[in-house]
Amino acid sequence: MPQDTKIQTNTEQVPRPPVVVVMGHIDHGKTTLLDFIRKSNVTAKESGGITQHIGAYEVVHGERKITFLDTPGHESFSKMRSRGAKVADLAILVVAADDGVKPQTKEAIAAINQAGIPFVVAVNKMDKPAADPERVARELGEQNIYLEGRGGNVPWVPVSAKAGTGIDQLLETLLLLSDLEELKARPSGFAEGVVIESHLDSKRGIAATLLVRAGTLKKSEYVLAGHALAKTRIMEDYKGSPVEFAGPSSPVAVVGFDKLPLIGSGFRSYFSQKDALDAQRKFVEEAKKEVKTIGDAAHSADETVICLVIKGDTEGSVEALKYEAEKLKMPGLQIKFLRSAAGEVSEDDIKLASSALHPLVLSFRAPVSGGARELAEKISIKIASFDIIYDAVDFLRAEIKTMLPVKIEVKISGRAKIAKIFKDSGKKKVVGGRVFEGVIKKGSRFVVLRRENKVGEGKFENLQSNKANMDEVSSPDEFGALVSSTSTLVAGDILEVFLEVVHQA
May I ask the CATH class of domain 408-504? Predict the structure, then answer.
């Protein structure tokens, strides 16, 4: 973080409001919970009902303030969620009472543990008929999270974000945890903190949401966020209302940066433009020393190189899409990012893409200029626009498959013989038999052999052995199975289980 040349003369620390991160599985009600708390509707404004950006909201309970960070729920935003947890003091882990612990619940737990912050579990959707808080407690225990009254000391509150029940108790619990943490900060002097979100506003320019951690950010000062600089001419609270200053734990939007601040960057305020410019110059010089020039790295002749231009409505969206693309890398596939930035897709983006082999231009909720669209059509550059991260990922995965030369090898993993057909409901059938070679697995596919002739195909939907659900059954054990197959099955049929192994050609 850049250092100011002026000495802070008053370092006295006073109590400050807690900063709370809200985490949990994608559809367990995090946004609905915040909706009720802050009496506004975010879900209706978000594509697909999923919060796509990090937001910061300030609420008052009694006479005390609490700042909430609303982290995106989709799995591809896990890096943003982790960063959100690191700037927070406390966390709410939202778990649906009718759904229990899910994959993103486990991700949230890992992020909270990594950040080392206290948290409270909000068991949401208690108004649902299928609500089962005991199941939630049991499944959390399997993740080493032991609730109060259930053999542990992690506080939990049953709530219904939809009906609003339990919310007061949840806020009281947060304030109690805050008191135990004895949160303090210096209110005087120049402000320091973290960039929560940044985006390009087509009418006003580059804006960023800043979370003040210490000091006070004042109007008409200068703020340096990473490499981006702005004079605080326009400062707004989370509701969009103008403010003159923002103290510790306060979120504030600042408009007018010269560059797009990176999410997670530290920021610092300055009184004079000279001090701010000197700090910016120093920051850039130090950053250049750390940057390793990658250039156009040589790649193997048998590798496929896919070149991406990614444009998004915010820097956070771009980061999420890059993160998703990185996950699709595999041997024989190189993904090169020609450009990744917030803002509209421009003619320059299309020109850049045209210089590469296998180019793709991905727009995530970012506009495409008329000139860019016209040029792309003229030189056959594909532009794909998306509002939902799922769709962008599916498209990218499909495009990669069309570009990769592959060889599919079929391997036999096991053979089983049907002894009896217990139930036949068309496509779904319940059968019993014995594995006489190798292993059969739940979810694996098979071909049906009758007198050594192939008569159909199917899939093991579920497996049992000795009346217990199994992931796999090995030779020479007996099994019962729910299978799906459009073919008629009879006793004596051989089910030959196979795996498809994909190799780069």
Answer: mainly beta
